Amino acid sequence: MPHFTPLIALFFVASVGFLVGRVEVRGVALGVAAVLFAGLAVSAVVPDVSLPEIVPQLGLALFIYAIGVASGPGFFAMFRARGVRDVGLTLGVLTLGAAMTTGLGRLLGLSSATTTGLFCGALTNTPALAAAVQSLERAGGASTEPVVAYSVAYPLGVLGLLAAMLVAERLFRDDSRSERTSSVGASLIGQHLETTTVRVGAAGAGRSPGQLREEHTLRVAFGRLRRGEVLRVCDEREVLREGDLLSLVGTASELRRAEGLLGAGSSEHLELDREVLDFRRIFVSRKDVVERPLRELHLLERFGATVTRVRRGDVELLPDDDTELELGDRVRVIAPRARMAELTRLFGDSYTALGELDVLTFGLGIVLGLALGEVPIPLPLGLSFRLGVAGGPLVVGLILGRIGRTGPLVWSLPYAASVTLRQLGLVLFLAGVGLRSGHAFVETLSGGGGLGLLLAGGGVTFVSALVVLGVAHRVLRMPFAVVLGVVSGIHTQPAALAFATDRSRNDLPRLGYASVFPIATVAKIVIAQLLLSI
Questions:
Q1: What gap in Å lies between CA 37 and CA 152, rounded to an integer?
Q2: By the 8 A CB rule, do 234 and 224 touch?
Q3: CB within 8 Å of 464: residues ≥ 6 apart
Q4: CA distances (Å), origin 100, targets 289, 460, 463
Q5: How is the chain split into domains, by residue range?
Q6: What is the pTM of this model?
Q7: Which of 48, 56, 44 is nearest to 143 (CA)?
Q8: Could you give the CA distance from residue 468 to residue 520 in angstroms, rounded to a whole number?
Q9: What is the biggest distance separating any 2 CA atoms in the chain, rounded to whole angstroms?
């Protein structure tokens, strides 16, 4: 066996873990979690290899803070939309899972640390495991116990969730193939957007596009307006006349609805006429235009322009006046050809600028998070806990992600940078804890205790998932496809989300996933630390 220096071990484990994580079995892959198992394997064979403690702590801080900033807007928006229902369901199921885990832990004679790891593995949540490990290290305890229990329970945590989905599909679902993405879902998640041209008839004349949007909750973007021989960007405040031609952007179903409200579809394609008005995809890289509602940019008044699409990562969004751009977005702008250069300068359009992380706001945010993590939080019965490296940066990240900007300071992260930081941070953390827990993992499996942990974790996963599916669909009357996303989000399991999306054949699971993922992540971090004190 070659000599592993810490640096060689880190990159070897990361590479092998990523390779294993891409292997799919019936559409399910471990993903980045495979780095943990690669670290356990290397540590079991070479027990004297380990990484400096600062490595997993650094990775944890990067990962958690980036998650918080990215989830901030959705986390607080959830409370305004369906907060009581979704928060109640999420906390209720996680409390049930914690109670089941505690009961099984006492039945099997497990320590509180092992019970906590079992909870994290059964609910497949790495940030919660990280919080538990960090709390134990702070108290001087054995941090390998929760890692071992997590590693044993995690595989059935994924498979048990998928099994529960299949069982629930047979028990509860009576409209599985007829569900389609609702208009509510279309407004919140990315959809395939199309362009069409409509001729305004008597039904649409006499009202403005803005009035039609409000009266009928019409989710389309109005692009061009041609009246007679004059072609210009549509002003949503302008009263339409019979015979006007409008170009619209939206989903196929919303465009059909708009045609019925406005008049009828036209064989003409205004978007093909680029002599007067042009369109362009522009990369958002200037801090001046992000984290502000589009209405504050006054594009129509200043440039005679409008934004009809926003591409964020791999998702295309339909914007409105309240849409706030993020660094790294790509906006599709319609404007007079002569003003396009000015608009390009306004948005930035620089990939190089986004490659330079704003170290000031990023570092300051993590400092605030780490400082909050050190503050003791009192609990009943004289207990207290600290958010630590896992919880502190998460809470601060959520708040700063929601705030967006403070004067010239922009707290949000460019999309690509956020994804990279999350991935890098998680790899550092998983490699670090895996490389110091392999020996204990092998001892647990060889000593016979592993089977009990495996079955206990699988039971917690299956029962808690089945409860979510049944209550959400039968009691709360949520569409089954949305429910599949909700249970994936409560378990914070992207592999289950991919499985649910494939089973549903629509994007509704993503809507359910996004509605509960932030609160589920925060709640599991808190519950994991509470379980350590029971």
A1: 10
A2: yes
A3: 93, 94, 96, 97, 100, 122, 123, 490, 491
A4: 49, 6, 9
A5: 183-352
A6: 0.64
A7: 56
A8: 13
A9: 84
Superfamily of domain 183-352: Regulator of K+ conductance, C-terminal domain (3.30.70.1450)
Which residues, including other chains, have CB under 8 Å from residue 439's CB and lie 6 or more apart?
43, 44, 47
Specify the 3-state DSSP secondary structure of 406: strand
Q: What single DSSP character describes residue 476? A: S
Q: What is the pLDDT of residue 154?
A: 78
Which position has the token pair 């004297």?
48
Q: Could you tell me if 414 and 358 are in contact, meaning their C-beta atoms sit under 8 angstroms apart?
A: no
What's residue 467's pLDDT? 92
- Altogether, the residues listed in the chain come to a count of 534
Token pair in block for residue 187: 């407004």
> Do the Cβ atoms of 484 and 504 come closer than 8 Å?
yes
Q: What is the DSSP string of 187-217?
A: HHS----EEEEEEE-TTTTTS-HHHHHHHHT
> What is the pLDDT, as a whole number, of residue 136?
81
- Calculate the CA dihedral of residues 209, 295, 511, 127 and round it to 10 degrees: 180
DSSP symbol at 348: B
Q: Tell me the pLDDT tens digit for each residue of 219-244.
A: 899 999 999 889 999 998 889 999 99
Tokens linked to 150:
């997590």
pLDDT of residue 142: 59
Provide the residue type at 260 as one letter: G
